[in-house]
Design a protein that fits this description.
Largest sheet: none
Helix content: 55-70%
Distance between the termini: 62 Å
Structural class: mainly alpha
Oligomer: single chain
Strand content: under 5%
Radius of gyration: 19 Å
Length: about 140
């Protein structure tokens, strides 16, 4: 039996050396029916995503990250100049929401459409951050 033919319920060799009981083990069964989990770390026997897909997602995430860095610098300047009490929590909330959506897109990289929807959704909170930073 090859690695690809193994039952997904078995633990991989990498799981034995990983901390916290091994993150590389197969995902827990879905709670709603027989569907596979949407977000999970790839198992050792999962096929690799295409390099073009991974590169495109990484470039999109890098563009979001660089935009977030610019917003962070502008936010720091606003805080040094004396921003309102709501400014930092609001900027942090929308920034972290954007980061969480990008992380979710990479955890769902084997899905056909979901990563692209999550990356597009990550643009909205970052756009709110940009608007707050520019207009404040």
């Amino acid at each position: 039996m090859t690695t690809v033919e193994q039952n997904r319920g078995t633990r991989t060799e990498a799981a034995e050396i990983m901390p916290f009981g091994g993150w590389e083990s197969a995902p827990a069964p879905a709670q709603f029916g027989d569907r596979e989990a949407l977000f999970r770390f790839p198992a050792a026997d999962d096929p690799a995503p295409s390099p073009m897909r991974l590169l495109t997602m990484a470039l999109y995430a890098a563009a979001l990250g660089l935009t977030g860095l610019g917003v962070g610098v502008r936010g720091f300047v606003a805080v040094v100049e004396g921003a309102a009490f709501w400014y930092v929590p609001t900027m942090s909330f929308f920034g972290l929401l954007s980061v969480a959506l990008v992380v979710g897109s990479f955890l769902s990289i084997h899905r056909p459409v979901l990563p692209w929807l999550l990356l597009a959704a990550a643009t909205a909170p970052l756009a709110v951050d940009v608007l707050i930073a520019v207009l404040y």
